Amino acid sequence: DAGVTQSPTHLIKTRGQQVTLRCSPKSGHDTVSWYQQALGQGPQFIFQYYEEEERQRGNFPDRFSGHQYPNYSSELNVNALLLGDSALYLCASRRTGGEKLFFGEGSRLTVL
Amino acid sequence: GQQVMQIPQYQHVQEGEDFTTYCNSSTTLSNIQWYKQRPGGHPVFLIQLVKSGEVKKQKRLTFQFGEAKKNSSLHITATQTTDVGTYFCAGPPSGGYNKLIFGAGTRLAVHP
User: Fold this and answer.
1) Residue B18 confidence (pLDDT)
2) Å from A14 to nearest chain B CA?
3) Closest residue of chain A to B43, computed from CA coordinates
4) Which residue in the set B31, B44, B99 is minimally distant from A33, CB to CB?
5) Count of A–B CB contacts within 8 Å?
6) CA distance B93 to B101
7) Is the peptide bond before B43 cis (omega within 30 degrees of 0)?
8) Are strands A107-111 and A64-68 parallel, antiparallel or unpaired?
9) Contact criterion met (CB < 8 Å) for A105 and B99
10) Residues near A93 by Cβ (< 8 Å), separated by ≥ 6?
11) pLDDT tens digits for B5-50?
12) Does the pLDDT value for residue B78 go beyond 80?
């Protein structure tokens, strides 16, 4: 039983570029959330997807967008990258009604 | 908006010593969760507390939820090198079941 899987694990981009991060939730989970974790900080909620719709959004600009597919997998897209977008991006999944989050290993984004 | 604060930010102990981290929310929480993140790893769920004054134990770890449901603590008895990592508390904001607000974490270093 695979846990939450994310890709890529590491990537380097330059300012102004766009990036797409991918996540497959744990088997049996249908709700996916994305978090941004800057170095030395706690994870910050970006948004959550359920039934292919964005259900709630944190304090992130519209440059951050996402998608959920019918198989529950999800993508996080960030446009017009800024240096400050450098962080570990974590995907977390849970089953409907559950509150425990299962995190993936994360995608470490470096923006130069 | 709601804030979750943790103290201390960092603590180093000798192996065998006890360790405590404290978590305070600016608002009442419906529940509080604790996660552990090993260096270079991802957050892993430890426990959830729901009831006012609740105390739960996991081997050498003791978790408490305050009577007012605004604070919590994690106590580790007789630390081991395997306890190294950052401990985060997190709670859902009022009416915001879909996301978690994380504290900045307490980083624990254990010297053998």
Assistant:
1) 98
2) 23
3) A103
4) B99
5) 54
6) 7
7) no
8) unpaired
9) no
10) A4, A23, A25, A26, A29, A31, A32, A33, A72, A101, A102
11) 999 999 999 999 999 999 999 999 999 999 999 999 999 999 999 9
12) yes
